[in-house]
Amino acid sequence: EAGVAQSPRYKIIEKRQSVAFWCNPISGHATLYWYQQILGQGPKLLIQFQNNGVVDDSQLPKDRFSAERLKGVDSTLKIQPAKLEDSAVYLCASSLEFEDEQYFGPGTRLTVT
Amino acid sequence: DQQVKQNSPSLSVQEGRISILNCDYTNSMFDYFLWYKKYPAEGPTFLISISSIKDKNEDGRFTVFLNKSAKHLSLHIVPSQPGDSAVYFCAASAGGTYKYIFGTGTRLKVLA
Predict the structure, then answer these.
(1) Do A98 and B89 touch (CB under 8 A)?
(2) SS3 for chain A, per residue?
(3) Are A105 and B100 a contacting pair at CB < 8 A?
(4) A12 pLDDT more than 80
């Protein structure tokens, strides 16, 4: 079974630029999560999708972050414009249903200079 | 406000000995707890979980203990192996939400 795929693996941008991350969950998984992990901290949930609907985006900085999950499969997370404090690893996870085990992708390491 | 705390950033243990990783939480509404393991350049992988109705859960070399009165859980690895060297995160969720709050992680190094 293929795992959660994410791209790119690494991205370096300057502040005020835009960036987008892509996630392909495990086939058949209805629930998809985006987490932000700042160096030295644990992952923090940004947004949770159930199929193509948003379940929880209470911790997503909506003035600059946006996410979508078209057709209930792949998802993209966008930051526009980026700030220095957005430097982090962005992890995508998926689960069969929301109460099931979450499987994480390898993450995208973003550096904002 | 750090609701899940792992106060030891790192731990070194000799191969074959027991590793004990600790986690404290402040939110009494948490009723489901998990441990994840993370290798460099990989995403976290699920290790073991425990519901608040239990005080112990075992899976092979891994055992998680939950002390609800102390709001404390621990992960025991016996015997420790060099391949166990990784960062371990505890996480908690409340009320069947399955929205995980993660601790800051403990880096375990098992010395051969």
Answers:
(1) no
(2) CCCCEEECCEEEECCCCCEEEEEECCCCCCEEEEEEECCCCCCEEEEEEECCEEEECCCCCCCCEEEECHHHCCEEEEECCCCHHHCEEEEEEEECCCCCCCEECCCEEEEEC
(3) no
(4) yes
Q: Which chain B residues are Cβ-neighbours of A4 within 8 angstroms?
A: 43
The secondary structure of chain A in percent helix, strand, coil, rounded to multiples of 5, reads: 5, 50, 45
Residue pLDDT, tens place only, A71-106: 889 999 999 999 999 999 999 999 998 888 899 999
Instruction: Give the pair of three-digit tokens for residue B53.
Output: 């109705």
CA distance B41 to chain A (A): 6
Comparing CB atoms, the residue among B4, B43, B103 nearest residue A105 is B43
SS3 state of residue B68: coil
**Hey, of A4, A10, A102, which one would you mutate to test binding to chain B, going by the most B CBs within 10 A of its CB?**
A102
pLDDT of A13 above 80: yes
Instruction: Assess whether pLDDT exceeds 70 at residue B52.
Output: yes
Instruction: Name the pLDDT band for A70 (thresholds 50, 70, 90).
Output: confident
